[in-house]
Amino acid sequence: MADSYDAVVIGAGPNGLAAAITLAQAGRSVVVLEANETIGGGARSAETTEPGFVHDLASAIHPLGMGSPFFSGLPLHEHGLEWIVPVASVAHPLNNGEAAIAWHDLHQTAVELGEDAAAYRKTFDRLIENWDDVTDFTMTRLTRFPRHPMLMLRLGLAGAAPATRFAKSRFATEAARALFAGHVAHSLLPLSYPFTSTFGLVLGASAHTVGWGFPKGGAQSLTNALAAYLESIGGEIRTGTRVQNLSDLPDHRAAIFSTTPAQVGEIARERLPQHSRLWMRRFKYGPAAFKIDFALSEPIPWANPNVAHAATVHVGGTLKEIATSEKQMSSGVPPTKPFVLLAQHSLFDDTRAPQGKHTAWAYCHVPNASRFDMTERIQHQIERFAPGFRDTIIAKRTWSPAELEASNANLIGGNVGGGSNRGSRVFLRPGIKIIPYRTGNPTIFIGSASTSPGAGVHGMSGHHAAREALATALR
Asked: 451, 280 in Cβ contact below 8 A?
């Protein structure tokens, strides 16, 4: 183990590993330091309920990971990664046993939406046709001039509308409106906010392109494949190594932080200019998650059997109900009928549970650092669309915002989005900066979900930060 490296990466989550791989591919010596004993950050898995039941600790479904320009260029399959892609990307149960299904196939989805078939195709046709260009733009820093400006202009104009207005003006049926609203709710913003339609358009299109898949065996499988590839090209990883000051780092020419700005500002405070420390302290963190891992005796008994064709289920009811839930959350109130994001991996991956048994992963949005126990409200929402769900529960493990942060220091107050999406931060992270990965010190960089392109298991923030380091400090 060396005492000196070209670069040190702090944090062994997807972005940290992506940064290290980028550097190692360029021939630079690199070591990744991880405070926890297990690598992965937001892409980890563990048996949190009962032996044999594997639950993802944070991110569980990975459309952005499957579509990541960086990950897709790596030989991760040679290191054990296998993607599972269900025939339906998302299911959205509704009242009276009805459900809207975003099948991987656009035509099937549109046909089932009845009178909204033409409107649904019109909404997503161009995005699907030009998906590679959409990915190229959304997965890079948005201060870069787009490769196809007119296409991105059309996306920007359509996405500028608040999601509630867009859904009501574009779709006639409650099913289509609710399906769109479920995608938008991933934004952690009230659906009445400008630009929230962008989330619905991009995530909705991804359902019919890359699909909403996940790694066989759990999110940890993606992390392990990234780590194995990194080590195969000369990179090093040290776990159980908490960094509290720059003096804790081995000798290096560049440091890349896959952490929040607050952590960078604290650890590197003596080598950062005052204006950098100021914006890092003022960086805003968004709403939190309250999460439950379930071990189940059988599959969730959805009232509509088609819901079992998707690993991802948006449990929230109508557009109006979802909008109310996210508005309450944004106002500092725990939602009375929360929008629940649910994953049912074991229907498609038998490595997740003992034979004949199943798992469920569910969370809802709550105010940052909320102490309110959402267990009963989450279970009530699931039971509403799956009568008898409670009877299938063998064991459960709840995760409050404080427990999520204790598990992963990047989840400040339980915020799973890497920061607030309000205002310009929807697009410009960590702020209005031409190069978001710079910190004010030419040898210190930040490449986490707090920088463009933002939240999600895609590794692009770390990759771009490493490229910036290669172009400057490591030239």
From this structure: no
Q: Where in the chain is the domain with CATH 3.50.50.60?
A: 4-46+64-69+215-282+416-471
pLDDT confidence of residue 347: 99
User: CA-to-CA distance for 309 and 89, rounded, in angstroms?
Assistant: 8
Residue-level pLDDT at 140: 75
Q: Please tell me the predicted confidence (pLDDT) of residue 144.
A: 58
277 in Cβ contact with 269 (< 8 Å): yes
Q: Which two tokens stand for residue 15?
A: 């972005």
Token pair 């089932």 in the structure block, residue: 112
Q: Taking Cα atoms as reference points, which of 22, 401, 428, 456 lies closest to residue 210?
A: 456
- Residue 152 parent element (H or E): helix 149-159
**End-to-end CA separation in angstroms for the chain:** 24
Q: For 266-290, what is each residue's pLDDT tens digit?
A: 999 999 999 999 999 999 999 999 9
In this prediction, residue 434 carries a pLDDT of: 84
What is the phi-psi region of residue 441: left when phi exceeds 0, alpha when psi lies from -120 to 50, beta otherwise? beta
Q: What is the dihedral of CA 373, 93, 212, 411, to 10 degrees?
A: -10
Quick check: helix, strand or coil at residue 90? Answer: strand
CATH 3.90.660 location in the chain: 83-213+286-407
Burial class (CB in 10 A: 0-12, 13-18, 19+), 434: exposed
Question: pLDDT by residue (tens digit) across 289-329?
Answer: 999 999 999 999 999 999 999 999 999 999 999 999 999 99
SS (H, E, C) 3-57: CEEEEEEECCCHHHHHHHHHHHHCCCCEEEECCCCCCCCCCCEECCCCCCCCEEC
Query: Are residues 181 and 323 in contact, defined by beta-carbon separation less than 8 angstroms?
Result: yes
pLDDT value of position 155: 80
Amino acid at 347: L
Kindly report the CATH number that applies to the domain delimited by 83-213+286-407.
3.90.660
Burial class of 425 by CB neighbour count within 10 A (0 to 12, 13 to 18, 19+):
buried
Which residues have a Cβ under 8 Å from the Cβ of 124 and sit 6 or more positions away? 106, 201, 204, 205, 208
Q: Enumerate the β-bridge partners of residue 4.
A: 251
pTM for the model = 0.96
Domain covering 4-46+64-69+215-282+416-471 in this structure, CATH number: 3.50.50.60
pLDDT at 1 (0 to 100):
60
Asked, as a colleague might, if the bond just before 305 is cis with ω within 30 of 0, I would say no
What stretches in the chain show pLDDT beneath 50?
none
* pLDDT at site 161: 95
**Count of residues in the chain:** 475
Cis peptide before 436 (omega within 30 of 0): no
Kindly state the percentage of the chain with pLDDT values over 70.
Answer: 97
